[in-house]
Automatic annotation (TrEMBL):
The keyword Transport does not apply. ATP binds at residue 355. It holds the Pfam family Pkinase. This is Protein kinase domain-containing protein. InterPro entries: Kinase-like_dom_sf, Prot_kinase_dom, Protein_kinase_ATP_BS. Keywords: ATP-binding, Nucleotide-binding. The keyword Secreted does not apply. It comes from the Eukaryota. Residues 1-297, 326-436 form the Protein kinase domain. GO terms for molecular function: ATP binding; protein kinase activity.
Length: 436
């Protein structure tokens, strides 16, 4: 990846990369690389794509650079290298253009989801499995809904989902699927393995709709819940005959310690997966409907203060729901860092929700780590912090005569509501003092 700028282009600019071991997939060769500063990145060497010219590639890459979500793999740069060589053709020497394209992305030490799957249900604990399932759903929702024009993956499968060292799933391999004729570089067994994630309307009629990725998502969830061979099995039996044995398996695995909330998570995930693999695509849910159903689990969990305390992070929609859309009528206090709203739970109990002002100097991970530390503070004379919310959404705004994608970050902290008066700014002030 070294060379003059005239023969190679890289954006953003990256230092030289040392390339080591190789893995392969249908459209590329994957090479872990170590930059001179010691930071690891993943370098994907793409196979030739004659249908994709230089400008199309650069335009597509520029679009993909805007993709930033905790459940997608961020691209950090690319290399587009061309050289002229002399080759023999029909007894003559001809000048040929040799092209090499590399995509550079974050390197994830956890490897692919595929290595955790077998013909048995995933061996990871349920909490981690649910984290992976929900993360994949949220990443796919972002790709479909986070931009003016949706990004359809079309090759979503366990080998395209990587895990970081905290088992957070990140979707990769999206963006160039529409330019790749995957059958050209697959052998027969690879085609068969990949076709498992393709919906029937694509296999028979080559129809591509937003429900394509939803079908793939359903197969992946089934493989986590019941093993790699679960989709063909569930297609031949009534849903209830599939749901109950899988549900009972997870209950038995947790040796009777399963809570009502966890029980709801397990059953809901099986039901979502089965709805995603419906033969008729009209009957499949949208990714937005899937996210809404998963968010409802949080609302059920937060039906009392006691349960609320067990949950560290709340959905923004949940906080919006319990404060009547952050209504002015629900305001119970103001501070230098935000406005405090009264939140009314379904059982009539109240909590205080402080919706924080924009604080661009505080990074996301910094905020979350500090809140997690403060949640461990327990004393009768300190108002108890019971949770927080960190929500990011994408919007399009006008900037210098152009429409650009912008991230809107919403942060909130939730604590006990004391009828005797407000705590004013002290709780959030504690957070900010730690951050400084």
């Amino acid at each position: 990846m070294e060379g003059s700028r005239s023969s190679a282009e890289m954006s953003p600019s990256l230092p030289p990369v040392k390339i080591s071991a190789v893995t392969r997939n249908n459209s590329s060769v994957q090479l872990p690389g170590v930059q001179d500063n010691g930071e690891c990145i993943a370098v994907k060497k793409l196979h030739p794509m004659p249908v994709l010219d230089d400008e199309e590639f650069k335009s597509e890459f520029s679009n993909l650079l805007r993709v930033k979500h905790q459940n997608t793999i961020p691209l950090v740069g690319y290399c587009h290298h061309t050289a002229q060589v002399l080759l023999e053709h029909n007894g003559k020497h001809v000048s040929a253009r040799v092209e090499e394209i590399y995509l550079c992305s974050e390197y994830l030490e956890g490897g692919t989801l595929d290595k955790h799957l077998s013909n048995e249900p995933c061996a990871l604990v349920w909490h981690t499995c649910y984290k992976i399932i929900k993360g994949i759903c949220e990443g796919l929702h972002y790709l479909h809904k986070g931009f003016e024009y949706p990004i359809y993956h079309l090759e979503l499968k366990p080998t395209k989902i990587l895990l970081d060292n905290e088992m957070m799933p990140k979707i990769g391999g999206f963006g160039f699927s529409g330019f790749l004729d995957t059958t050209e570089t697959f052998n027969t067994s690879e085609v068969m393995r990949t076709s498992l994630y393709m919906p029937p309307e694509y296999i028979s009629k080559r129809q591509i709709t937003p429900k394509f990725d939803v079908f793939s998502l359903g197969v992946i969830i089934l493989q986590i819940m019941a093993g790699k061979e679960s989709y063909p099995k569930c297609a031949d039996i009534p849903p209830e005959e599939f749901i109950e044995p899988v549900y009972e398996f997870w209950v038995d695995r947790m040796q009777g310690t399963i809570s009502k909330h966890t029980s709801h998570e397990v059953r809901t995930c099986i039901e979502i997966a089965l709805s995603c693999v419906e033969f008729n695509r009209v009957k499949r849910p949208t990714i937005n409907e899937i996210i809404q159903r998963l968010n409802k689990i949080d609302i059920v969990e937060c039906s009392s203060i006691g349960e609320l305390y067990k949950t560290e992070e709340f959905a923004f929609d949940f906080l919006k729901h319990i404060t009547n859309g952050f209504s002015k009528k629900n305001i119970i206090g103001h501070g230098g860092y935000g406005i405090v709203y009264k939140g009314l739970l379904d059982n009539g109990e109240e909590i205080a929700v402080k919706k924080l002002h924009q604080m661009l100097w505080i990074e996301d991970e910094q905020f979350k780590n500090e809140v997690n530390n403060l949640m461990r503070v327990q004393h009768k004379n300190i108002v108890r912090l019971v949770g927080y919310c960190h929500h990011t959404s994408q919007i399009f705004v006008e900037h210098e005569g152009k429409h650009v994608s912008a991230s809107v970050v919403e942060r909130a902290i939730c604590f006990e509501h004391k009828q005797g008066g407000s705590l004013d700014n002290q709780l959030s002030g504690m957070i900010l003092l730690h951050l400084h």
